[in-house]
C-alpha cells in the first residue's frame, strides 16, 4: 500500500528546539514544521552536492580564506539559479501533497526562507569542505 505522506513524515528527524505557536505566520510555521526537519534529514546530501559544486568549478573555493568561503557559499545559492533550484528541489521532493499545496500558496517567500536556511546550514559546516588528498 502506498502510504507516501506518512512514510515521509515518519523518516523526518524530530527537532526538539522547534516551538510552534498559534499566532505564527503560515511561513514561519511551515519553516518549523516542514523545512527544518527536511533540511536536517537531507544534510549529508546537501553537503555532498555543494562539495561537488565546488569541485566542478575547479576548486577555487579551497584557496579562499574563511570570510570569502562564506561569501562563496552565499553567492552560489543566491546568484546561481540553476544550482539554487537543484538544492530547493531536494527539499521540495520530500514534501507531502498537503505540504506542497501549502507551499504553492506562497512559494516565493518560502523559497527565500529555504534558500537562507540552506546557506546558513552550509556556512555552519564550512569546515567540512576541505581539499581531499
In words, what does this structure look like?
The protein is an all-alpha fold and 133 residues long. It has one domain (29-127). Helix content is 68%, strand content 0%. The chain contains seven helices and no strands. The chain has helices spanning 4-11, 26-41, 43-56, 66-79, 81-92, 97-105, 107-124. Helix 4 packs across helix 5 (81-92) and helix 4 runs antiparallel to helix 7. It starts with a helix and ends in a 9-residue tail after the last helix.
Strand fraction: under 5%
Give the beta-strand count.
0
Derived from helix and strand composition plus strand pairing, the structural class reads mainly alpha
Radius of gyration of CA atoms, rounded to a whole number: 16 Å
What is the string of helix and strand elements?
HHHHHHH
Sheet bearing the most strands, described?
Answer: none
Helix content: 55-70%
Distance between the termini: 46 Å
Q: Tell me the count of domains.
A: 1
Averaged pLDDT: 90
Contiguous low-pLDDT stretches (5 residues minimum) are: none
Number of helices: 7
Shape: elongated
Amino acid at each position: 500500500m502506498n502510504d507516501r505522506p506518512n512514510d515521509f513524515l515518519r523518516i523526518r528527524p524530530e527537532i526538539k528546539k522547534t516551538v510552534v505557536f498559534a499566532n505564527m505566520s503560515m511561513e514561519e510555521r511551515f519553516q518549523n514544521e516542514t523545512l527544518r526537519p527536511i533540511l536536517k534529514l537531507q544534510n549529508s546530501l546537501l553537503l555532498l552536492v555543494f562539495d561537488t559544486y565546488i569541485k566542478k568549478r575547479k576548486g577555487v573555493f579551497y584557496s579562499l580564506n574563511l570570510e570569502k568561503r562564506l561569501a562563496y557559499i552565499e553567492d552560489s545559492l543566491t546568484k546561481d539559479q540553476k544550482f539554487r533550484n537543484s538544492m530547493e528541489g531536494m527539499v521540495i521532493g520530500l514534501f507531502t501533497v498537503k505540504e506542497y499545496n501549502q507551499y504553492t500558496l506562497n512559494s516565493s517567500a518560502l523559497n527565500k526562507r529555504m534558500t537562507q536556511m540552506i546557506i546558513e546550514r552550509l556556512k555552519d559546516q564550512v569546515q567540512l569542505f576541505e581539499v581531499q588528498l
